[in-house]
Amino acid sequence: MPESPEVQALADALGERLAGRALTGVDVVEFRVVKTRTRPPDGLVGQHIERVSRFGKLVDLGFSSGAHLVVSLGRHGWARFGDGASTSTDAPAAAEPPMLASLAFDDGGAVELTDAGGWVSLGCWVVDAPRDVPAIAKLGPDPADPSFSRADFDRAFAGRRKQVKAVLQEQESLAGIGNAYSDEILFVARLSPVAHAASLDDAELDRLFAATVDVVRGAIDARRGIPIDRLKQAKVDAMLVHGRTGEPCPGCGGVVQDFSFASTTAQYCPQCQTGGELLPLKG
Asked: Where is the Formamidopyrimidine-DNA glycosylase catalytic domain (predicted)?
């Protein structure tokens, strides 16, 4: 699932490429992508893009009329330039994900919105303001925002009898973090992912706050300037424990393990995070 560092890099790349460009055509291949049926994206044809922004894990294309095209990448969505203008020197993937919608612009270029999943998770809204999209309206503070404070963090965690990994991924509490970066944050903080937020002492909360800010902002800095067709791989390559099951822990040399979380699996180091205790896996 795309998370805030990669979505920020994507928004930056789209903004650099599209600012001032006029939308000349829209091709929706999969009708389920459009969530505002009375305001389809082709109603924006002829308007110029003024800016591209990120809200949590969503991308907002702001147009000259004041309208916005908001894109939720969902679990497997992404974007690519449709005119062969990638700056990556890597060989293309053997099987690219299908294009579900395409936006054409007056420079002859296009942005294709894709979804690699077995079900459609990509979504688009045409709205007057980004907060008209429910997923944006409910967002909590974003650790990438320079104004994000310890008070914002404390409000998310204080007194919560909920596992810290779940709180980190709860978009109403903290915007933009998903399964991968929550694993990374908890590893850096040396905390068990299943500990309840209410059980953390002051020193543990200090470590968790610092790790949350440092991991998210560090990843955003690291992804800056990477071609959008390389961002997903760059994320995978940078992970310390997420997706590293069976590999040596970079902290202690122990073995990174899986555990069950919600409807998926996540990774952690027992020696560094749980005092050697193995967390359960569904059989």
From this structure: 2-120
